[in-house]
Structures are given as C-alpha cells and as structure tokens.
Amino acid sequence: MTLRLGDIAPDFQAETTQGAIRFHEWLGDSWGILFSHPKDFTPVCTTELGYMARIKPEFDKRNVKIIGLSVDPVDRHSGWAKDIEETQGTAPNYPIIGDPDLAISRLYEMLAAEASGDASKRTAMDNQTVRNVYVVGPDKKLKLILVYPMTTGRNFDEVLRVIDSLQLTAKHRVATPVNWKQGEDVIIAGSVSDDEAKKIYPDGWKAPRPYLRIVPQPK
Predict the structure, then answer these.
(1) What is the distance, to the nearest Å, from the Cα of residue 218 to the centroid of all Cα atoms in its chain?
(2) Half-sphere exposure in the Cβ direction for 19 (13 Å, CA)
(3) What pLDDT, in 10s, does the model give residues 116-158?
(4) Spatial contact of 23 and 14, defined as CB atoms under 8 Å apart
(5) Domain ranges of the chain
(6) For 120, what's the count of Cα atoms within 13 Å in the CB-facing half-sphere?
(7) Beta bridge partners of 65
(8) CATH architecture, domain 13-152
(9) Beta bridge partners of 30
(10) Which residue in 43, 1, 11, 27 sits closest to 150, CA to CA?
(11) What is d(CA 147, CA 141) in angstroms, rounded to the nearest whole number?
(12) CA distance readout (Å), 55 to 52, 61, 90
C-alpha cells in the first residue's frame, strides 16, 4: 500500500501525552496535522515542537488540531517537553503520540513494513524517515503530505499557508497561484466552464490566457 493524497488517513489507537486516543474520533469534524519525529531529544525536532506550540492559536483559528508523534514511549516525552520549554520558550500544548513499537510509523509508511525492534535500542538515524507532515481534512482524507530530512527544519508558516489554500479551495471552485497568500487573487478552477463562471463571477475576470482566469479571492 502506498499512501496518496485523497486516501483515507489510516486510523489508529495510541497513547499520547494527553491520554489515549483513537485518531479519527479525536479529529472529529476538525482538520488535523500529524507531524512525526524519529526520536526524542533530537535538536531540529526540538525547535519544531516549540514553534508549533507558539503558533498553535493560528491553527486553532482555522479549526485545525495538532498532534505530534515521536518514536519513543510517552513517559520520555515529558522530559523532552521540559527541554523544549527551556530552550524554545514554549512547551508542547498539544498531544504527542508515543510510538515505541513503530506501529504508527509503519502504518503511515514512514518506516518499512519489516522494521521492528525496541524503540530504546533504535537511533534517530535508524528512524530518519519519520519526518513527515500529514494534513487531514474533516472527511479524514489526506490533503497534504510533506517529507523532510533530519537536517532541515520544517516550515510551519508554509503549512499554514497551504491550509488556507486547502480550506478556500474546498469551499469555492478556485485554485491558488504560486506563492499565494490569504486575501490575494485566485484562479477560477479549470473544471468551471466560462458559462458557469459568468454566473459565479458576474463582474467578470482577468484572462491573460483563456485558461488563466483571475478573480479576487471569494469571501
């Protein structure tokens, strides 16, 4: 099995720093972000977890729930959280999943199906592919998959930008152009005929080419 955009995000039960969850039930009617880490007490991940805690209100405004995952037991996460607070200024204020048996990392294809062993005996390098970001819609389908190397910190401002686009294009039949930000012009989706577009946009649109129809962002 290969996870692709549009697939149902695999459901699972897990222990987290905020108690046991079933993933789909925990998401409810919200959007969600699952972002993973190869090991506790890793430097790049420490910066990421702290930054996500600082900008959590931005995700809250967009009805997006945040959940982390690290390939270590939950009882180790609390010690890491103290380090994150002391070095980054903010402790994680969202649940972090423990994945000591690698079950979720394998389920989400971040590790090979045959990967096994005690997490305490595995190094971050053993788990280096557990560096993914998944955005899940209220329909439980995967809307975005990003994969980062261990040496490159993730850009969660970009993830917010993409969520703005995903939520806009889920509601309106438009697409967002390169580097689009909230409030900027958008493109009428190719699936909308000119006749349909005239009804939706009676004031017309700019069209430097027939296939490139530009309108203000819908409200």
Answers:
(1) 24
(2) 3
(3) 877 888 999 999 999 999 999 999 999 999 999 999 999 999 9
(4) yes
(5) 13-152, 172-215
(6) 5
(7) 32
(8) 3-Layer(aba) Sandwich (3.40)
(9) none
(10) 43
(11) 18
(12) 5, 10, 10
Would you give per-residue pLDDT tens digits along the chain (219 residues)? 689 999 999 999 999 999 999 999 999 999 999 999 999 999 999 999 999 999 999 999 999 999 999 999 999 999 999 999 999 999 999 999 999 999 999 999 999 888 887 788 899 999 999 999 999 999 999 999 999 999 999 999 999 999 999 999 999 999 999 999 999 999 999 999 999 999 999 999 999 999 999 999 998
Note if the pTM is more than 0.90: yes
Just give the CATH number of 172-215. Answer: 3.30.1020.10
Active site positions, annotated: 45, 139
User: Sign of torsion, CA 150 12 95 79?
Assistant: negative
Nearest Cα neighbor of 131 from 155, 110, 108, 106 is: 110
Tokens encoding 208: 């430097």
Amino acid identity, position 123: T
Identify the DSSP state of 10.
P
